[in-house]
Every structure is written in structure tokens, then in C-alpha cells.
Amino acid sequence: MSGPQPDFDFHHLFQSCRVPVSIHDLAPLYEEFARLRAAGIDDLILHLQETPREVHRLFPLIRVMDANPAAVRFYEARDRDHLLKNLGETVDIPKLAVALVSIWLEEECFDVQATHTSLLGRKRPVRVSGPIPGQDAPNMIIPVTVVELQTP
């Protein structure tokens, strides 16, 4: 059997997955990356080192579209809408500069270790991962997984 069957229910898989998964649209970020390149910026690492606040401007361009129930529980949100409105408050934005650079370089995926804070204030070491579609991909929507790391 090659590829998913036409009747495979990806929505059910997303909803029932025990791993926190959120769905993100990278299109606005890729549009800004195109503007930066047109302005002569060809090294995002150097650009972020020279203008550290730029991470805080770029990161919100990644639009959060959905989150599964496991993500709602993990981030201790009241419900899905509460999480979608506040997910940006939970992340360690400076650490996620690594993800921005991976997206800029169009690597296969990003994989970042960071500390996320639940909406109730609990800090957790996590690994955040997601595929990178590339700027020429027809769809810029990706799943992002979060796995809590065990502390010794």
C-alpha cells in the first residue's frame, strides 16, 4: 500500500494524537523573508545578531491556525480558542530564532530545544519540531510538535 487511503481521517488522527500538535501557516513569514532578501539581507544569522529584537517581529508572522486537545492540555489552556489566542505567550522566542534560521535556509525541518511556559505559568523544557515546506511549496501550512523533555 503506497500513500494514504482516500478515506483516511487525518482530522481524527490530529485530534486523537497524544502529542501536542499545532498547525501553523508560514506564508506571512516567507513573504517577509522575500522582503528582507530584496532589501539585501542574505545572512539571517548575522541580521538577527545585529538586530536581536527582529526575532520578536518575525516570530508572530507565523500564524497559528489550530491546536489539538493534547496541546490544549499541555499548555493548560481553558480551551482551543484560548490557546490559539495566547500560544505566542508560551514560547521562548529567542530560542526559536534557530527555527527561523532553519526556515530561512530551507532546511528539511527545524528541531529546537527551548523552555515553554504554560498559560498557568509552569515552565517546561521542550523539543519543538516541524517540517519546512520551502518558499516554492504550494502549501505553507505545517504541523508543529512539542515534546516535553525529562529533567534529571
What does this structure look like?
This protein is an alpha+beta fold. It has one domain (12-148): Beta-Lactamase, CATH 3.30.450. 34% of the residues lie in helices and 24% in strands. It has seven helices and five strands. It has helices at residues 10-16, 27-38, 44-50, 54-58, 69-74, 80-86, 97-104; strands at 21-25, 63-67, 109-117, 123-131, 141-148. It has a five-stranded antiparallel sheet with strand order 2-1-5-4-3. A hairpin with a 5-residue loop joins strand 3 (109-117) and strand 4. The radius of gyration is 16 Å and the shape is globular.
Tell the overall outline.
Answer: globular
Fraction in beta strands: 15-25%
Topology order in helix (H) and strand (E) letters: HEHHHEHHHEEE
CATH architecture: 2-Layer Sandwich
The tally of helices reads 7
CATH class identity = Alpha Beta
User: Structural class, from secondary structure content?
Assistant: alpha+beta
The CATH superfamily turns out to be PAS domain
Number of domains: 1
- Strand order across the largest sheet: 2-1-5-4-3
Question: Percentage of helical residues?
Answer: 25-40%
* CATH fold call: Beta-Lactamase
- Distance between the amino and carboxyl termini: 42 Å
* Uncertain stretches of 5 or more adjacent residues: none
Largest sheet: 5 strands, antiparallel
